[in-house]
Amino acid sequence: MWNVLLSFSGLVALIQLLFLPFFPESPPYLLLQKEDKAGCLKAMKQLWGEGNYHTEFDDLMKEKAITKGTKIMNVLEVLRERSVYPQLCTMLLLLLSLQLCGMSAVESSLQESIIPYVSLGVSISELISIIFCSSIIDRFGRRTLLCGGYLLMALILVLLETSLLLSDQFLWLRYCSVVLIFLFIIAYGIGP
């Protein structure tokens, strides 16, 4: 039934495509990009209902004053800009670290009957990490979370490798490896 599951995301995209034209533009987009003050206030009222949104509007005006003179770049311009190469390299390494970490190989070594539960657990782990990270990032800062996340990921990978090596002798270690996969994803979401 994978084809039904795959077509479900297409159905959701089609519903969004049909209903999106009836929604207003984003108020920050209207004010900061299009410089449409009346449209911004109208969009705020459409999105949030009747009320006084002068504080939000004033915040957007302050943001507009701060970003005045800043050129908005498209993707190709960002890729050509040498000053952002360190940030782009960091982002690329972060994305590749999850893609090339070998979690797919670990999942394929599991029993076929528990793989759907592992996939569900991975999704739940990602959700937990998003919620947890967004609540602690202001308190600890990005650098601390990044370094701590990498250290935690390294420790979890050592434990995961150990559990996989010993899983033939102790069958219960296969379940530990599943838990370690979840913890790895949470550590990745919190840090990198």
TrEMBL record:
Q: Which residues cross the membrane?
A: 114-137, 143-160, 172-191
Q: Which PROSITE patterns match?
A: MFS
User: GO CC terms on record?
Assistant: plasma membrane
| Location of the protein in the cell | Membrane
| Single GO BP term | dehydroascorbic acid transport
Predominantly, its location class is membrane
Leader peptide range in chain numbering? 1-17
User: Which Gene3D superfamilies does the record match to this protein?
Assistant: MFS general substrate transporter like domains (1.20.1250.20)
Recite the UniProt keywords alphabetically: Membrane, Signal, Transmembrane, Transmembrane helix
Lipid bilayer topology: Multi-pass membrane protein
Q: Where is the Major facilitator superfamily (MFS) profile domain?
A: 1-192
* One GO MF term attached to the UniProt entry: D-glucose transmembrane transporter activity
Q: Name it.
A: GTR9 protein
Record organism: Poecile atricapillus (Black-capped chickadee)
